[in-house]
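Thread: Modeling a multi-component assembly for a lab meeting

Hi all, long-time lurker, first post. My supervisor asked me to bring a structural picture of a complex we are working on to next week's group meeting, and I have zero experience with this. I have the sequence lines for every component (527 residues in total). Could someone generate the structure of the whole assembly? Inputs are pasted exactly as I received them:
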Amino acid sequence: MSRFFGISPELQLEKDASSRYLPVVIATMVFLASLALIGLFSINSAIGNWSAAVSGNLTVEIAHDSSIDLSAKMEKAVSVLRSIPGLENVRALSLDETAELLAPYLGRTDVIKQLPLPRLIEVTISENSAVDLLAAAKKLASEVPGAVLNTHRPWLDKMILLARSVQTIAAIIMMLISIVTVIIIVFAARTGMVMHQEIIEVLHLIGAKDSYIAKQFQNYFARLSLFGALPGLAIAILVMQVLAWLADRLEAGLISAPSMMFEGWIALAMIPVLVVILTTITVRLIVLGSLKRMM
Amino acid sequence: MVIFENVGMRYGMGPEVLRDINMHLASGSFHFLTGPTGAGKSSLLKLLALSHRPSRGLLTLFGQEVSRLERSDLPSFRRKIGVVFQDFRLLDHLSALENVALPLRIAEADEELIEKNVTELLNWVGLGHQMQARPPTLSGGEKQRVAIARAVINRPQLLIADEPTGSMDPEMGLRLMHLFQELNKLGTTVVIATHDIGLIQKFQYPVMYLRSNTLHFATAQEYLSQYKRSGV
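Re: Modeling a multi-component assembly
Sure thing. I ran the full set together rather than chain by chain. Output:
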């Protein structure tokens, strides 16, 4: 470990002006990669939440018709639903409750109640039960004309498709960031080789192995990467906390605060480690390749 | 020890700077290498130091043909060769002691042994009081002595020196030539590139001289009489 953090004794890479700003570049790259990763895992977590919230629930909608008694139709629909095995809880929403659901979008509930509102029945499916929803929907439609069983599945499928697309974009962004980081490191390592060519030649002629020279480069650049990656990650986590706080204040059902499962935190913590490993391997390959071209 | 057979050398696609070099340096021999500027002296030294490969011909060092050497074999071969560069090539951020210790440290020698040998050698070359000094604070002659100490610290089998006494007073120059002679007596093959006719005259070792990119041999007496006649 002390060798890893030790200075490069002969090459004195620490005094190079060319690589001094590398930690800033690495910090920026790690910050962007961390945000992309946070986004990736947060979306995954949100999809799980939406799925859990929606998959156990059904809604029955009875369209407004001023010519009939909607309450009687509601009661009939409730009794039909209760007769279907596997449906645990069947509850008709009052007009007040329906108006309250629409209040965030339409405004005052007393005004909403004047509108021709459909009536809603909330249905919960028993856990571990296999309900034939198609048969249930047919039975309901035949016994209570105008009643529609809504499973939320088409809506959820569209949301999941959107979320997966965003996840793919995040993964592509991470890949691009990795490629750009490697290119920057390659450029910095090559510049270092050119700047220290004379000393490298002397080291060779007094019997230094290629690996001896490469080790000084790879340790130095790995150290720079670590010094850049840690603040980059810290800032990304800070930004995530600020976003979580802002999303909480928004109190919107769909837009949830970025939250990650345990695996997400592990992946985030691995970013600096991966950057250091990527840097070490890249620099080693570049230096050994360049040294091979010398005798 | 060192065998050149029809060796030629060129840089990139340029003209040949060395042509048809044939030579055989026996183990434990001592030679001067001389010739006018641009005749190919530095290029020949680069081949001997394993800094460059020949463009053609066969170069055999320590019983091994160089072109057949694996890259991983080169460091151990180079550790058998001590090189004194004309421009010293010391590492300015290291002290004189650290510069001289470098070949031993690279070879992962014992630190106690490094300290003992380096101190002894620096005292011998008259730099005992300058061990912690860095090259930029040393005079030309002192730098050259540090460079020589670095080249010989490993007890090389082949010692190559490019104008090793050029920057020092005659007394120190002679002292260092005696060091080379001592190493030579212990079996080290020595090649000294020089323009100093006085040195050739005093030590009378065989002379290799380069003319028009080709190598020629002469005894010291032959060379000196040629030099007097035509100023080779």
